[in-house]
Amino acid sequence: MKNKKLSLLKLTKESPKERKARASSGIQHRAAVFENKKKREKHKKNYNEEI
After folding, report:
1. Per-residue pLDDT tens digits for 15-43
2. N or C, which end of the chain has less CB nearby within 10 Å?
3. What is the C-alpha separation between 32 and 49, in angstroms, rounded?
4. What radius of gyration do the chain's Cα atoms show?
């Protein structure tokens, strides 16, 4: 398993530090998408409610 990881790093020519930065940016993006979704849910009107 360790050899596969090492070969993958060589394949992408990406240092572990760069990989960590890329992964954390993806996590931050997902968090932002989730926050936006929560805000939309909060402001969404329920049109099925009886008046």
Report:
1. 888 878 888 888 888 888 888 888 888 77
2. C
3. 30
4. 20
